[in-house]
């Protein structure tokens, strides 16, 4: 039996105001071919299908068109989709009754009073399997013991335990667990996973998946990776770069292969990159003249999809006409312009350089901002005390529930 694991599609994402529909289309066409080529029985999509809770209509249509195409290529395919932190738990379930007719199961929300609802048994051509399809867990979905110092982690732990215990009872074939969370020990990219993993407070120990799971298919972190050094607890990563910091990731999907009861192999398949993502220059900054020369030297294939380009200009560049000069240099280039970063040269510590470009402020996570404010106001080198950080995290968790 073969299971293909993917996550974090972020359909509907605009990349620096550029529409990514064609890139997503290219990925989805590639994926439906891969499903057929590798004779996949089950497709798992571990959250963040959409980039926002209210995705544009064309993004929803993309998902449905993909499901239709995938089922045409592989009539016996089963698909399971869980909600991520970017998805609306309610909205993603709208088409649930209809999608069941396509052997597609959508789980938007965890109900603590019926943990069995997220447990599915599938009967594939190559035998049965049991799946705990746990969506992203918001504090409001959990029973929180506020006396406990790690109330959220404890709540998440209990949610997984109760659903997995039910799954073990009724288990047929291998047991798979899906989740959308930040598991301890994973690498995060600096600027594109929404800061739900505030200051590490939400990182969850891999022990929540227990020894009962034969494979754990995770989403949320954008870089493909193993968790806690296990072959069988994996992030598939996002199928395409979500930020410039992800430009060197090898984007991939994972194929997990099972015999009757256990996972015998996990193999990545690399996803061809539809559009390149480049920083100019790749490291440090450049003077205005050098930058214009670099743009001049760009060789762009007019028949290929244009690359995304972000420019890095030395902060001490004083030419007030810099924007007009850069626009001129870019005028006949087949590229998608993604702004200019002002870069201070060397010797500054990382804290200063993070705040040079106002555009980067919104990418700082709240705890970082708290630390910066604390250092400035208290004239201190210390970070804000853990109790203050925790207080901020609780306020943010509350706000994210209210805005849902
Ligand atoms: Mn996410």
Describe what this molecule looks like in 3D.
With 404 residues, the protein is α/β, with parallel strands linked by helices. It has two domains: 2-270, Metallo-dependent phosphatases (Purple Acid Phosphatase, chain A, domain 2); 277-403, no CATH class. The protein is built from nine helices and 17 strands. The strands form four sheets. A six-stranded mixed sheet has the order 6-5-4-1-13-14, with no helix packed on it. Helix 1 packs parallel to helix 2 (57-73) and helix 5 runs parallel beside helix 6 (322-330). The chain is globular, with a radius of gyration of 23 Å. The chain starts with a strand and ends with a helix. The protein binds manganese (II) ion. Manganese (II) ion is lined by residues 47-48, 84-86, 180, 193, 220. Manganese (II) ion (MN) is lined by residues 47-48, 84-86, 180, 193, 220. This is Nuclease SbcCD subunit D.
Give the proportion of residues in helices.
Answer: 25-40%
Rg measurement, Å: 23 Å
In CATH's first tier, which class of the largest domain applies? Alpha Beta
Summed up, the domain count is 2
Strand content: 15-25%
Multimeric organization: single chain
Instruction: Please trace the helix and strand order, writing H or E for each element.
Output: EEEHEHEHEEEHEEEEEEEHEHEHHH
Side by side, the strands of the main sheet go 6-5-4-1-13-14
Our count of helices gives 9
Which parts are unreliable, with pLDDT below 50 for 5 consecutive residues or more? 194-201, 347-359
Distance between the termini: 38 Å
Bound molecules: manganese (II) ion
Instruction: Using the coordinates shown, work out and report the CATH topology of the largest domain.
Output: Purple Acid Phosphatase, chain A, domain 2
> What's the overall average pLDDT, rounded?
88
Give the strand tally: 17
Largest sheet: 6 strands, mixed
Tell me, what's the shape?
globular
- For CATH, the homologous superfamily of the largest domain is named as Metallo-dependent phosphatases
Q: Tell me which CATH architecture of the largest domain applies here.
A: 4-Layer Sandwich
User: Based on helices, strands and strand pairing, what is the structural class?
Assistant: alpha/beta
């Amino acid at each position: 039996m073969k299971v293909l694991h993917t996550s974090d599609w972020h359909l509907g994402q605009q990349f620096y105001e550029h529409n990514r529909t064609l890139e997503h289309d290219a990925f989805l066409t590639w994926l439906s071919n891969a499903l057929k080529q590798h004779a996949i029985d089950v497709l798992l999509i571990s959250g963040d299908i959409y980039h926002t809770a209210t995705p544009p209509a064309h993004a929803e249509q993309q998902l449905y068109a993909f499901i239709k195409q995938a089922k045409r290529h592989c009539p016996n395919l089963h698909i399971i989709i869980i909600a991520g932190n970017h998805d609306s738990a309610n909205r993603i379930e709208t088409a649930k009754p209809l999608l069941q007719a396509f052997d597609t199961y959508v789980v938007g929300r965890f109900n603590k009073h019926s943990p069995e609802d997220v447990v599915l048994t599938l009967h594939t051509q190559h035998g049965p399997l049991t799946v705990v399809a746990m969506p992203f867990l918001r504090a409001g979905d959990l029973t929180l013991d506020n006396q406990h110092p790690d109330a959220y982690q404890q709540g998440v732990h209990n949610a997984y335990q109760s659903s997995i215990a039910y799954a073990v009872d009724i288990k047929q074939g291998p047991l798979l667990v899906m989740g959308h969370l930040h598991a301890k020990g994973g690498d995060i990219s600096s600027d594109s996973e929404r800061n739900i993993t505030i200051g590490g407070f939400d990182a969850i120990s891999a022990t929540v998946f227990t020894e009962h799971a034969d494979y754990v298919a995770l989403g949320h972190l954008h870089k493909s990776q193993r968790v806690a050094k296990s072959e069988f607890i994996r992030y598939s990563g996002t199928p395409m770069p979500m930020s410039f910091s992800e430009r060197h990731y090898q984007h991939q999907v994972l194929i997990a292969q099972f015999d009757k009861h256990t996972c015998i192999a996990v193999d990545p398949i690399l996803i061809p990159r539809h559009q390149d993502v480049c920083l100019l220059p790749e490291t440090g900054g450049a003077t205005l003249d050098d930058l214009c020369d670099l743009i001049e030297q760009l060789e762009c294939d007019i028949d290929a999809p244009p690359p995304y380009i972000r420019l890095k200009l030395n902060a001490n560049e004083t030419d007030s006409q810099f924007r007009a000069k850069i626009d001129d240099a870019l005028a006949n280039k087949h590229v998608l312009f993604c702004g200019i970063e002002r870069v201070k040269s060397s010797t500054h510590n990382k804290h200063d350089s993070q705040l040079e470009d106002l555009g980067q402020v919104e990418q700082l996570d709240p705890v970082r901002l708290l630390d910066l404010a604390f250092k400035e106001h208290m004239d201190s080198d210390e970070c804000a005390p853990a109790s203050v950080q925790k207080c901020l995290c609780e306020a943010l968790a509350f706000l994210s529930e209210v805005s849902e």
